[in-house]
């Protein structure tokens, strides 16, 4: 559990064992913490990332998952440079993001009134990401059934590209959601999944980092900073290490 | 009903740079200080652990260290005729949250403002005549000067261990430093950082063109450093997980790496985290603050009586708290009266992208404040006669680290997905670089802060409403300075350059800088300022309001060095003047 979600929880046991730090009010929700005499510290009380176990879908229905896989496979197609967005795990990434705090925008200001503003005023949609996907994918399915008598996932690569371009340009209208908003959301999340640390379910085997020459979660380039205009062949590293480190046999 | 706590000498609101500096100085004076922090306690070992720190998704995309807009946000509009709407996620700027504040996820670029900036209207009038100042601009002097500021810049250098090279040491211009600096009393505490390829190539070209490149003054220490409080920092490792991230190496100076480790151990200091101040309370006369009321995250309200209230939150919250507490008179742009919310300013963010075929910049190597810059086109360092604008920008190459969710530029016209997108992304990732130009922003009558009439925070209090657009002056300046950057870029011989001056309306969506200033400004005249040169409220003398909210306009430099200096300045005034004779330190 990320301590940001429940401030103070991970430290509560420690807090009770010392007089340096006193918790004012508890009862489920942490209240103010008084810090006096020493910084609050407990062994191994660091703040880990929120991740979900691999395998299965946490948010998507199987039909939604098939559509998302068919989308990310076209946004990031397989070629000589890399595997596809689907094989890189972008759909799993999006599924897990939607199942987490991002899915409900729980950290964002979502009070009304909701009104469309100038483009400079940014995203003013009342739909949170879970709704954007649920409503958007249903709209896409209905558009494809009306137009092609098939699901999006059954369309040819060319047909899928045409539909995606239509969504991106706003040439295709979807029921209940702005097509451009739906497209931008998926494109943004797909790129996040492709380029983020693999701990979140995408970028399998650090495929995008290898493709770019990005060494990943390394933390010290003192030996390399003055190697100007030279290729530095450091294999990438994830927060979780490297697959090659697995002991064989 | 708020539960009353035992009285204290001083209550400090916000434990970022300003609050930590002032709390530390005043506890040294023997005062009992209670500091209230809205966010959580943050600590390098726990929060910025090496095992979790290099995570672009979490810290850049999901903004882990920033204030959550669900806690508090602002509403924004370009002009008074529009309806302001909430910023539902941070874009243009990034307010911080928790101890250390925005100073945890900052880049670390730490300039001093130049001597002429503290008397900008006087300076421009003397050099060009009053008639030359564009009508739309509301420029004013700070009510202080270089001689008063320099010792406090020096104190901030010694807390942070700034790395860099002096350009002007006691009036003598130094080779390799920034010749446009005001005279410094001391060299930078640590030597300049070593430079990656991009900044080196830029500096060589600029030098050949007759400019004077210098290492960007940086709060990333270049060597092991023990600061003026005895806290030890380690050298920057150029990891590139810096801007938007906390530093796991104790290399990037912040309140949590340089001050709080000492401050928290003092017996006359208490911090209360997860505690949000609702308002400053005053006695029946209205001229004296009696303390603050705050609420913790369980919803419990507390009253903290204090002799002295020091407000040290982010610019926006400083101004909002004054509006919510009724301290000062709200600014009204129609009548041009009142000062709370007046003189809000920002900065223009300009740049040029360079695409090469034959170079490898290893763009993942870097840091928020690793790089080289020139200052020939900043502020009033060049002759503005006949140009039709004032101001300018700091031109520099600072590779912040190219983590690839956000840092993979492609030439304009490239599709945003598909095979061609991927081909261009791979082709350009290692071989592109950029030159930035962070430029001044001058105040106008219609750019201001006020309370929103419609949108409330989760406690039911009005959000702060920001009304802002770039003045014509700033857009002309941005075009001029970006063209100058373009000349240097061209001389570096890339395949393609793409110039991006700030254009059109201010847009809340893309990140530009967190350099939001003004709204509770300092000055010599209470008609046009909210605090005097000691950061003391003109209306309620036992309230000091410290931060970038005090800047009457914004030069082409990052604000944190000056926020640090103003914090030492305010603390010094309290220690040496106010405690001897509590009351107004400057007679209006």
UniProtKB/TrEMBL annotation, chain A:
Keywords: Oxidoreductase. Coiled coil: none annotated. GO terms for molecular function: oxidoreductase activity. Pfam families: Gluconate_2-dh3. Its EC number is 1.-.-.-. Transmembrane segments: none annotated. InterPro entries: Gluconate_2DH_su3, TAT_signal. The keyword Oxidoreductase applies. This is Gluconate 2-dehydrogenase subunit 3 family protein. It comes from Mesorhizobium shangrilense.
Automatic annotation (TrEMBL), chain B:
Pfam families: GMC_oxred_C (PF05199), GMC_oxred_N (PF00732). The keyword Flavoprotein applies. InterPro entries: FAD/NAD-bd_sf, GMC_OxRdtase_N, GMC_OxRtase_C. Residues 173-196 are annotated as: Disordered. Residues 236-330 form the Glucose-methanol-choline oxidoreductase N-terminal domain. PANTHER family: LONG-CHAIN-ALCOHOL OXIDASE. This is GMC family oxidoreductase.
